[in-house]
Amino acid sequence: MRIRNDRIPSVSITNYFTLDGDDVDLGTLRRSDLAFVIDLARRALDGEDSSSIELRVCGRGAYPLRGGRWVTKRIYASPLFRVAQDIAFRAGIQQGRYAREVRAVRAAPAKAATRRVSRAAARTARTRGSKGARTYR
Predict the structure, then answer these.
(1) Which of 4, 71, 96, 114 has the most CB atoms within 10 Å of its CB?
(2) What does the domain layout of the chain look like in residue ranges?
């Protein structure tokens, strides 16, 4: 995917607040990373399917994975991945794919959850757990 730099707005973006209440400093992102986040947000606002947005975040060849195939602890902790994942999650909520109460399911990858833990969290949140892009949620 190629991101055009002339599409970056001239406003100053410094902080991003996730649904979990985390404050992510966007000032640490490179220009190309910020362009990816803005492009992803535009796609979500335009109503692109949340599954395709998630694939852009953690699918094979996704930009936040830096050419890798797996979401490692280092990638998961990066501001780029956290913001991109939150945008994908918000798109899923808007399209009715997730309930707002699935924070336990969303936090599962951070705890190195197994399939059993993810399914238990999904039952607790009264939503269906699914496997997408090699991540249980």
Answers:
(1) 71
(2) 17-136
